Amino acid sequence: MCGIVGLFLKDNNLNNQLGHLLSNMLITMSDRGPDSSGIAIYNKSNDGQIKLTLRSEDPDQDLKKLKQELIHKKKLKLTVIKNFNHIILRIYKKDFSYIKNYIKNFFPLASLMSSGENIEIYKEVGLPETVIKKFGIKKMNGTHGIGHTRMATESAVTTLGAHPFNTGSDQCLVHNGSLSNHNELRKKLQRNGMEIQTENDTEVAASFISLQLKNGKSLKQSLELALSELDGFYTFLIGTKDGFGVLRDPISCKPAVMAENDYYVAFGSEYRAFSELPEIDHAEIWEPEPAKVYFWNHKNE
User: Fold this and answer.
1) Can you tell me the distance from the alpha carbon of 133 to that of 113, in angstroms, rounded to the nearest whole number?
2) What is the value of pTM for the model shown?
3) How far is the C-alpha of 164 from the C-alpha of 53, rounded, in Å?
C-alpha cells in the first residue's frame, strides 16, 4: 500500500502555490506509506537549460568540488546550488554529456535523482512531512508535479528505492501496486540499453515507458502497450515535461480518484488528498476507469 498524488495547474496564477498545495496533498497520504517519500516538481527552465538533481552523501564537499572543477577549471557556464543533501546543476545542453559522465566517473557516491529541462526530484527515507521540510518543497513554484509516499514490499528502504523514478529526460513515474514480471522485464530492458539502478519494480515500469518513448511512440501508445506487457496490479501516475498521465490496470483494485475544474486537475489515492485544494467544491470528481489512458498537457491548452 502506497500513497500517490498529482497536481496539474491550468491557472498560471496558482504556479507559486504548487509546492504548498502538492505538499499538503502528500502529507494527507502519510499513513499509506511511512518508509520513504518523494516529489517531482516541474517548472520551466531558463533558456532551455537542463537541470540535473543529485543526491550526495557529502553535499558540502561535493558542491565545492563541482564548482572548482567545472566552473573554475573547465570554465563551463552553469549554476550549482545545494538543497539539503541534493545538488541542482543548471547546465547548457552542449555540456550535458560531458558533465553527466564527469559526475558518474568522479562522484561515485552521488546518485542522479533526475534530469531534464523542467523536472527536479527530491526524495528521501522518511515520512512526507519530514522530507518536505528538509527540502523546502512548500515554497517551490511550478506548473505541475507528482508525489509518492512508500510502503516498501519488494525491495529495500533506501533513497534510491523511493519514488518518483526518473528514467528519461523530464519523465518520471510513481506507482501503487506490484508487478509480477518485473525481473524478466528488467533483463529485457537492460539488453535494450536501459540503465536500471534498483530492484524496485516501479523503476522497471518507468524504464519500460521511457524506452517506448525513446523508440518514437507517443505516451498514449506507450501506456497502452504497458497494459499488455506489465503483469500485476497497479496505478501509475506519469510525469512529463508538459503534463501528466494516469493508467490503472484492467482489474483496478488499487484506489484512485481524480478532480478537475477550471483551475487544475488533481489525482489522489484517496479523496482526502483534495481536502485543502482551492475551489474543490466546484470540481468534477471521478474514479479513473480500468485500462484507460488519461493525459493532460499544457501544449494542448
Assistant:
1) 18
2) 0.96
3) 13
For residue 38, the cross-strand partners are 123, 148
Give the residue numbers annotated as catalytic, written as ranges: 2
Task: Spell out the long-range contacts of 216-219 with Cβ–Cβ below 8 A and sequence spacing 24 or more.
Answer: 219/245, 219/293, 219/295
Per DSSP, helices labelled H in the chain are: 18-27, 59-66, 96-106, 128-135, 182-191, 201-214, 219-229
| Cell digits of residue 180 | 509480477
Which domains occur in the chain, in start order? 3-44+124-300 (3.60.20.10), 45-117 (3.30.70)
State pLDDT tens for residues 151-192. 887 667 889 999 999 999 999 999 999 999 999 999 999 999
Burial class of residue 46 (count of CB atoms within 10 Å of its CB; 0-12, 13-18, 19+): exposed
Backbone dihedral angles phi then psi of residue 115, each to the nearest 5 degrees:
-150, 145
Could you tell me where the beta strands, DSSP code E, fall in the chain? 3-9, 36-42, 50-55, 79-83, 86-91, 111-116, 119-125, 144-150, 165-168, 171-179, 232-239, 243-248, 257-260, 264-268, 284-286, 294-297
Question: What angle separates helix 182-191 from helix 201-214, to the nearest 10 degrees?
Answer: 40
- Residue 160 has a CB neighbour count (10 Å cut-off) of 18
Q: CA-to-CA distance for 133 and 129, rounded, in angstroms? A: 6
Cell 566552473 -> residue: 71
Rounded CA-CA distance 230/93 in Å is 34
Confidence (pLDDT) at 300: 47
Cell of 26: 502528500
